[in-house]
From TrEMBL:
Domain Transcription regulator AsnC/Lrp ligand binding: 10-81
GO molecular-function terms, A-Z: sequence-specific DNA binding
Protein name: Transcription regulator AsnC-type-like protein
InterPro entries: Dimeric_a/b-barrel, Tscrpt_reg_AsnC/Lrp_C
Gene Ontology, cellular component aspect: cytosol
GO biological process per UniProt: response to amino acid
Gene3D superfamilies: 3.30.70.920
Amino acid sequence: MMGRMLTAIVLIDADAARIPEVAAAIADIRGVSEVYSVTGEVDLIAVVRVREHETLADVIADQVGKVEGVVRTQTYIAFRTYSQHDLETAFALGLED
């Protein structure tokens, strides 16, 4: 599995008074590619991209989960990616203009 990245989407509940600081601290963690402040059930969503499962555990459990102000995390491991390009290709299959 060389060269292939593992991606995890981490839903984060944070102390409401500290959301910007929590987001900035998480964004500084190596392996975290993006952090979004969102509406809805959770406060933040982080995208983690690493090369090894062991690193995933280290980043999420040992670092993201221990940031001051993080109340709870829920992690989803991505096993397949559908980009906009992939979707356009899939929908175009067999269609003639």
